[in-house]
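Shipment paperwork, digital attachment
Item: protein structure file
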Amino acid sequence: MTAPTRSATPRRIRYAILMCPPAGLVLLWLDRNLSLPKKILRSLFTVFYTPIYAGLVLGILYQFFGLQEEWRGGSLPHFTWSKTLPDYDRLEASRRDPTNLPPFTSQAKASVSPYWTEFRGPRRDGHYTEKSILTNWPPIGPRLLWRQPCGGGYASFAIANGLAYTIEQRRKQEAVAAYDAASGREIWVHRYDAWFQDAQGGDGPRATPTYHEGRLYSVGGLGDLRCFDAADGKLLWKKSLIVDNESKLLRYGLAGSPLIADDKLIVLAGGPGRYTVAAYHRVTGEPVWKTLHEQQGYSSPMLVTLTGERQILVLTGSRAVGLKLEDGALLWDYAFLVRDGNTIAQPVLLSTNRFLVSGGYGAGCACVEIQRTATGFAARTVWRNQNLKNKFTSSVLQDGFIYGLDEDLLACVDAATGKRKWKDGRYGYGQLLLASGHLVILCGNGDLTLVKATPDQHRELARVPGIRGKTWNHPAIADGRLFIRNAAEMACFDIGAK
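Attachment content:
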């Protein structure tokens, strides 16, 4: 009688488990010659071995094939062969030789009125009302006016008098730049040594510049506050917010866009520190008042009127506060804590005495009502839930309904009750604006999307390529032109109604 030979099948299975655990596991359970206990034991080994195998493969891909990880807003990193980083050589070459761009003319300068002069528009609410926009986009998308490389960072644009202003990271310098809105030609640039670095979120400045009556105000990632002549870029005055207020830099840099309120320039100075909210005279740069001592968030101050009182609305790292415009005195506060002080989304005014706060990291959202009392003001919760978690984005209000990204899904919430009407459509950790009853969404991957703002159902009308790569920057609209950018390129599209 011939002695039985050992089957080659288990050897193939062992090799498969070592080289590709999922395939090995399938072969293991398809093999009819193995007993159930052996299948279970080898399956357990495969489960414990898989993370080791994955680590080895990733290590090889990182070391020899250029794989990289890029944080795009979720709980896990996104693996890519090409991160969204500025190409400085290409950027510098384009600025040296802009022969492909038409000249900046007085006619082009007059075509754009001072409308979208600050972060998220004239009221910082993400509403574009200057003129109607095109709501039936062609299959290829709105007409591209210009596209070019830019420096790093997460700032948006302020647009006035034919110029589009932003702040970028260019190598080891921050660069405040003015571009011809019609052609994209760089008109002036002011550079200074500053380089905020963050391995997770990304390098560069975060705060959108603010234009007001011929002056431009910018805040860099490290807290450099500068005032310029908006026409030619001449530096008028500067401050270090960290030094001047004896404050501390936030983990992800200073992100609050400067706010003009009468003759005051309101800024957030990081923290905690001696002072973390400050007002300077917008013309001279002299301090007017300084207040609060706690860590600030990453949103921007807003000038609002609540319960008939004109005031500054600020989200700190742990609460919403109303500050008296004249001297910075605290009018009221409302506890709203986002993990690690990551308050990023802008508050949304819902009525004459109510506003929305929202945050990611499990914070959810709340409708806050400000009431007059015998001694001043008080804040109370109208409703609070998890139906809208604005992580990086900010929501908009339309006809009593709130539209915003719940993490990376678009949601519609009833402003009166907090009940969700619908949640649908993945847009990444992008940004959105409201125009002509539609949501213009700049997706987290740079795509442009048009969605009808209706509580009845999610209605996506168009999705077209915009710019390439991770995009957390807010879009801006002026004179029917849509301005978008990320850390590598910028573009302008004509979305005005004909």
